[in-house]
């Protein structure tokens, strides 16, 4: 896979749904065959994958919201993984 651009605008794929599950006290990614339990970091990233925000916007928002810095490589790597796993897509 080629390098993910900071200007890419990832969105959760059609047919998948990000949802808070109270019994599990966590976000899950629902898909037709089941669900994927997400850790807090993954959920924070996927909540922002709305097709409007760029990868750079997502990084900046998480850093600002959680008083973090230097998380760009980790966020980019997760979004790239999410693309490979087909949890998100980047519309043309």
Short description:
With 92 residues, this protein is of the alpha+beta class. The protein has helices at 40-46, 55-65, 72-84; strands spanning 11-12, 17-21, 26-31, 34-37, 88-89.
Total number of helical segments? 3
Radius of gyration using CA atoms only:
13 Å
Give the number of DSSP strands.
5
Helix/strand-derived category reads alpha+beta
CATH class: Mainly Alpha
* The CATH topology: Arc Repressor Mutant, subunit A
Whole-number count of domains = 1
* Fourth CATH level, the homologous superfamily: Coenzyme PQQ synthesis protein D (PqqD)
- What fraction, in percent, of the residue positions are helical? 25-40%
Uncertain stretches of 5 or more adjacent residues: none
Name of the CATH architecture: Orthogonal Bundle
Average pLDDT metric = 95
How far apart the termini lie comes to 16 Å
Q: Sheet with the most strands? A: 3 strands, antiparallel
Q: Tell me, what's the shape?
A: globular
Beta content: 15-25%
Q: Provide the succession of SSEs.
A: EEEEHHHE
The side-by-side strand order for the widest beta sheet comes to 2-3-4
Outline the secondary-structure elements:
Layout: E1 11-12, E2 17-21, E3 26-31, E4 34-37, H1 40-46, H2 55-65, H3 72-84, E5 88-89
Antiparallel strand pairs: 1-5, 2-3, 3-4
Helix pairs in contact: 2-3
């Amino acid at each position: 896979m080629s390098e993910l651009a900071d200007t890419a605008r990832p969105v959760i794929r059609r047919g998948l749904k990000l949802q808070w599950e109270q019994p599990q006290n966590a976000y899950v990614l629902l898909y037709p065959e089941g669900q994927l339990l997400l850790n807090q970091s993954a959920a924070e990233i996927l909540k922002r994958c709305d097709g409007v925000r760029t990868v750079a916007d997502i990084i900046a928002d998480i850093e600002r919201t959680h008083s973090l810095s230097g998380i760009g490589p980790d966020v980019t790597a997760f979004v790239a993984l999410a693309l490979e796993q087909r949890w998100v897509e980047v519309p043309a």
